[in-house]
């Protein structure tokens, strides 16, 4: 379980990115983080893995306060948090298997990681994970030979190889087409439920968040302005989160996108007729 208590961050520039954010994410819950650009979503995720040092507040991962950890403790504790990135962050010239195994680097001694010699149990486990994400037959391929969706599956398997207690997921589908995005979100949510793994997902796509998240937290100007189940995310709630102007722009954007897709479909249908 993750508990965030009155977390604040003001950058050296004077920008206040988070103001007294308090949240509890229980085991197995997959929570979507939404909000306009600059609302503080990335800062929140970065505070949790301590890429950013909070100005005030506490972040407890099963009773361990992440904010007060010193450097060497931090290195050890970071392996408890799995990260999944928008651009996958794979090592392109390594194989799928090697990428998944790199999730174990926080556990193996330096000489082993240097020689890339992993214990047999790690290798066996990596195969199980590759099977779970549907990539068994791609284990020996180089990462750069995979599609976007397949790469994100490797990213998921690598994060799970860490045996994390929490997943932080940063716009996992931003580089994927709509169908692949849904497949990836389905896989992620199923895995979190299976393992009782809590996850925080920074997600721009509101309909996708509504479809897959169990809970949605809306940030605006560094404060939590919505916290509830997806079906409570009404137009009023979205206006509170995004503001009238941005929310209307998003809606118009959706309409334009739908119109463009319908137009492309019609033209394709005319061609094959
Ligand atoms: N390294 C930094 N130094 C100074 N200010 C920063 C830094 N990173 C973020 N900020 C500021 O903090 C605020 C929150 O930014 P953050 O990137 O967390 O928002 P976000 O919700 O993730 O936005 P986006 O959806 O555009 O990624 C913004 O005002 C931003 O300008």
From TrEMBL:
Protein name listed in UniProt: Phosphonate ABC transporter ATP-binding protein
Listed Pfam families: ABC_tran
GO cellular component annotations of the record: membrane
One term of GO molecular function: ATP hydrolysis activity
UniProt domain ABC transporter: residue ranges: 2-246
Keywords: ATP-binding, Cell membrane, Membrane, Nucleotide-binding, Translocase, Transport
PROSITE patterns for this protein: ABC_TRANSPORTER_1, ABC_TRANSPORTER_2
InterPro entries tied to this protein: AAA+_ATPase (IPR003593), ABC_transporter-like_ATP-bd (IPR003439), ABC_transporter-like_CS (IPR017871), ABC_transpr_PhnC (IPR012693), MetN_ABC_transporter-like (IPR050086), P-loop_NTPase (IPR027417)
UniProt xrefs under Gene3D superfamilies: P-loop containing nucleotide triphosphate hydrolases (3.40.50.300)
KW ATP-binding (keyword) present: yes
Matching PANTHER family: AMINO ACID IMPORT ATP-BINDING PROTEIN, PHOSPHONATES IMPORT ATP-BINDING PROTEIN PHNC
Origin superkingdom: Bacteria
């Amino acid at each position: 379980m993750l508990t965030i208590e009155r977390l604040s961050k003001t950058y050296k520039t004077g920008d206040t990115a988070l103001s007294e954010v308090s949240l509890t994410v229980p085991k197995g819950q997959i929570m979507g983080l939404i909000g306009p650009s600059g609302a503080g979503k990335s800062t929140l995720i970065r505070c949790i893995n301590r890429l950013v040092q909070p100005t005030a507040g506490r972040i407890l991962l099963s009773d361990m306060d992440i904010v007060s950890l010193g450097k060497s403790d931090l290195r050890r504790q970071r392996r408890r948090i799995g990260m999944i990135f928008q651009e996958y962050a794979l090592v392109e010239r390594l194989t799928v298997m090697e990428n998944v195994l790199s999730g174990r680097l926080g556990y193996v001694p330096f000489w082993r990681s240097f020689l890339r010699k992993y214990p047999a149990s790690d290798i066996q486990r990596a195969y199980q994970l590759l099977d779970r994400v549907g990539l068994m037959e791609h284990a020996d391929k180089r990462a750069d030979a995979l599609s976007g969706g397949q790469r994100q599956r490797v990213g998921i398997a690598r994060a799970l190889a860490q045996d994390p207690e929490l997943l932080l997921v940063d716009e996992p589908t931003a580089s994927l087409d709509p169908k692949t995005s849904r497949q990836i979100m389905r896989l992620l949510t199923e895995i979190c439920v299976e393992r009782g793994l809590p996850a925080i997902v920074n997600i721009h796509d509101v309909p996708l968040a509504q479809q897959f998240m169990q809970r949605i937290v809306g940030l605006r100007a560094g404060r939590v302005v919505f916290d509830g189940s997806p079906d409570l995310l009404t137009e009023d709630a979205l206006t509170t989160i995004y503001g009238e102007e941005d929310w209307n722009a998003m809606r118009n954007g959706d309409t334009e996108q739908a119109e463009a897709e319908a137009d492309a479909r019609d033209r394709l249908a005319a061609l094959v007729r």
